[in-house]
Specification:
This protein is mainly β. The chain contains no helices and 11 strands. It is about 0% helix and about 45% strand. The strands form 2 sheets. It has a 7-stranded antiparallel sheet, with no helix packed on it.
């Protein structure tokens, strides 16, 4: 049975529509995006070039990697264009009090997540 861990990453109430921010959930870099009022979370690493996606461009539900232009759908992490041939991980988001929590599946990342989470700006 797959185990899950929720990591509180902070308040994103000031994240405007069409914006994204990077955060750390345990040992995982996560990209939070707000599109048409909904929040989405994907891994903040391009599967093609191992570059942070948060420095790329968000247009609609598609984030484009700044290095080679690989594109990913923020709704599910699927790749939406070459040169990437695989997607990135996507994560569930929950509202927790005044902030949000990202759900990590322990089969994807080892250990408990003792460091907690925090938002990070670039």
């Amino acid at each position: 049975m797959e185990s899950h861990s929720q990591v509180v990453v902070g308040d994103v109430s000031d994240l405007a529509d069409g914006q994204m921010m990077s955060c750390v959930a345990g040992a995982t870099n996560v990209l939070i995006c707000r599109v048409k009022g909904s929040l989405y979370a994907i891994e903040d690493r391009c599967s093609h070039a191992d570059v942070v996606l948060s420095t790329g461009l968000l247009q609609g539900h598609i984030v484009t990697c700044p290095r080679h232009g690989a594109r990913f759908d923020v709704r599910d992490g699927s790749h939406a264009g070459p040169p990437a041939h695989t997607g990135v991980k996507s994560f569930d988001i929950s509202n927790i009090g005044t902030g949000i929590a990202v759900t990590l599946r322990k089969t994807e990342r080892p250990d408990d997540f003792p460091e907690g989470g925090h938002l990070r700006t670039r």
